[in-house]
Amino acid sequence: MNLPARIQKIGLDLETIVFHLNECDFEFEHRDEVFPGPEENAAESIARIEREVGALPLALKLFWLQVGSIDLCGFHPEWEGCEYPDPLVIWPPSFAVNELEDFLADKKNRLATNFPYVVPVAPDAYHKADVSGGMFYNITVPATADDPPLNDEWHKTTFLNHIDIAIRFGGFPGLAHSPNHTWHILK
Q1: Domain range for residue 135?
Q2: Residue 2: how many other CB atoms lie within 10 Å
Q3: Region of residue 119 (left: phi > 0; alpha: psi -120 to 50; beta: else)
Q4: Which sign does the torsion angle of CA 19, 97, 136, 74 carry?
Q5: What angle do CA 28, 4, 116 make, to 5 degrees?
Q6: What angle do CA 152, 70, 92 make, to 5 degrees?
Q7: Mean per-residue pLDDT for 106-125?
Q8: What letter does residue 158 receive in the DSSP assignment?
C-alpha cells in the first residue's frame, strides 16, 4: 500500500476507534483534542520547520495534513487492569513549532550540549498517566526515511508502526503488557 493510502486508512481506523470509545462512554481528558482534524495552518508549520532545521519525514507530513492529530488520554470508570495504557497521542504541528521556537531561542547552548531539535510527537506512557516520565516520543530531523524511527518510544519502532500497534490495541498499546485487563475496546 502506498504511503498516502496507508495514511488515509490509518485516519479511518482512528475515526472508528474514537467512535467506539464514545459509544463505550470513555471519558476523554481533552475532549476538544481527541480527533480535531488537520490544523488550519499545518502546511505553513511544516514549511517553517523544514526551512529552519531540514526535511520532515513524509509520513509525518501526510499525517498532519490528512489526519491532523489525536489524543486518546482519558479513562473509563469500569475498566481496570492496566496502569499505563499508553493512549495514542500524536501532537499537531503547532507543538513542533513551539518546540522549534524554544530550540531557536537557545540553539547555541542546545547544540553545545548535544540536544538538537527533534519533532515532539507525543508524551511518553508515564506522562500520559500524569506520572513523571522520560523524554517525549520524537522524530529526528532532517529526515532520512519516509517512515522514520520514533525515538524514545518503548516498542523501538517507526512512526507509522507505532500507530499501527496502537490501532491493534484499540488505541492503547500499553494493554499488551496487561493480559488480564478489563478494557472492552479491543472487542
Answers
A1: 3-186
A2: 7
A3: beta
A4: negative
A5: 70
A6: 75
A7: 93
A8: B
